[in-house]
Predict the structure.
Amino acid sequence: MSTPALNSPIFREGVINTGIVLDDTNFPLEVFPKMIQDIVLDLKETMSFPVDYTGSAVLFAVSTALGNTHFIRFKKGWICNSIVYVALSGNAGDNKTHPMEWILKPLKERDKQSEMKFSSEWKEYQKELKQDLPEEPIIPVESRHLLNNTTTEVIPKIHSENRRGLGYYSDEISNFIDNFGRYNKGNDVPVWLSGWSGKRYRRDTLGDRVPAGFYDHFVSIIGSIQKQLAYDFLKGKQNVNGFFERWLFAMPLKSEFPFENDIELNEDTLDNWDKILSKIIDLPFDADSLPVILEYSPDAKKHYIAWQNECTLYIRSQNNDETLGKIQKKVQTYCKRFCLIFECLKWACGESNKEEISISSVESAIKLTEYFRKNALTIYKEFEQKTETKNYKKALFYDSIPETFRTIEAVKIGKEIGIGERSIYTYLKDNKMFEKLGHSQYKRVS
């Protein structure tokens, strides 16, 4: 499968014009309200936070704060929420974790307050259990916004108690994925494939005394990942099950060790961000009532459809390229979710009345969609090139080795053609290529 040529105006490098000239990023910073732009740029100047990582963390934080309070309707029977799966991709030491931690401070502070409240209520509950009361005391529930280092098996219980929605953050996404099947020895990928769609869910376990009702699944995810590990999203079943296409990869153009400076953070930066996100966190939510559903304005919907049609025409001109088609299908859904996030964020910044999806929110959503689509295609292209190189070297080694040989000969030949010793030992385990005759002795298989 070949990666599509990026030679269309809608896919070409440089199509994203940030308006704010930064030579280390293609992240379209102008999609945010001015207050958010100022926060992101202040963090870049004073803390050396890459714009791509800070901007993407803002996206996750707003998504988590919204949860199931607001949905967007594209047409009758077609509504969606604002779930995002965000991967901050880069090299080791690229300052991926700090922007995420900083942006999540308001949510963490709310969870800290909830934890203290729950701790007090739990102690009171334990006292009441020891008393001879006419009715059994009510079990206290801890209100939460964020999850960290939590297994998939535990999340439904926490979510059923926090039906507004949750955000899962992990310093390393590889740790999040490593937790898949940690206790049930199963495969948790289907859970997250389905969870991305935000479907109705009900938790039923043998230990439940009272059945939990249905709720709309909402768990957004953010975490960092080293660039070379991002290719793991495309290995094996992930290449065909849609897991890769569900992720938004934030990738700076440059990876440079930053200079330190003594410039202090603007006094308004932290306060403004706390006020903006708190305004969204404080949006009312009632699990027994319908969420607020925002419709597109007529001009906004026309603008989105025109963009989608342009993308469709290009994909068809590329003989319906399968890779591009898979990525486009998912980013189209993300584009709608971004529309909802931007409209609510602009409202929190005093730039919208939040009565409908405006054309400006659609324009912002399209620019951000194109940024993430470009990054996904870049990762896919690099993975494909590495795979082709690996297969080429493997074939070259096979053609260079005699019909029968010893391990020491194989290592020597591999070194001559630029293949490491570890790779040679891996090749020798492939029984479709080589047959082991005895200790350190092999034969080529035709």
Observations:
- Residues 401-444 form one domain.
